[in-house]
């Protein structure tokens, strides 16, 4: 066994569009454990969509809610957790995830992210209403800001592959 950490909780981090939710569902099913999408959990707490909350209340208010939602996960077991792309921006979130279980950074090339996100921009508050050039610049900026935190994950997995290949790569590390 390569990994001596708690393998009952697996946390997937990475940029929007990297496939955290899709891979997380497939991984949880393969392992026979639960799946939790942090953005969906937060969405259930709100009386509006995350995109609308972001617009109405701002990023700081969303990050505070996201941070509290992460800290509320203390004691969770046998679960794959897919995070939002910016979840690690809040103080203590990465450390909390690293203490809970095994953290995987699903690293995807910028071109892969652009291709996946061009049709989903309106649902992604940080990317809403951008043209293709602006999307490329915004993704570059976000990658620059977030990569130091993402790279502190226990493992980095190439997410530019099929879902089955990404799941297999994660399972090899457990």
- Structural shape: globular
Let me know the largest β-sheet.
5 strands, parallel
Order of helices and strands: EHEHHHEHEHHEH
Question: What strand line-up does the widest sheet have?
Answer: 2-3-1-4-5
- Continuous helix count: 8
The chain-level structural class is alpha/beta
Percent in helix? 40-55%
Q: Low-confidence runs (pLDDT<50, min 5 residues)?
A: none
What is the CATH H-level superfamily? Answer: P-loop containing nucleotide triphosphate hydrolases
User: How many structurally independent domains?
Assistant: 1
Indicate the multimeric state: single chain
Query: What is the rounded Rg?
Result: 15 Å
Number of strands: 5
Distance between the first and last residues' Cα? 7 Å
CATH topology: Rossmann fold
CATH class: Alpha Beta
Q: Mean pLDDT score, rounded?
A: 88
Beta-strand portion reads: 5-15%
Describe the structure.
This protein is of the alpha/beta class and 174 residues long. It has a single domain, classed as Rossmann fold (3-Layer(aba) Sandwich). Strands 2-3-1-4-5 form a five-stranded parallel β-sheet, sandwiched between helices. It is globular, with a radius of gyration of 15 Å.
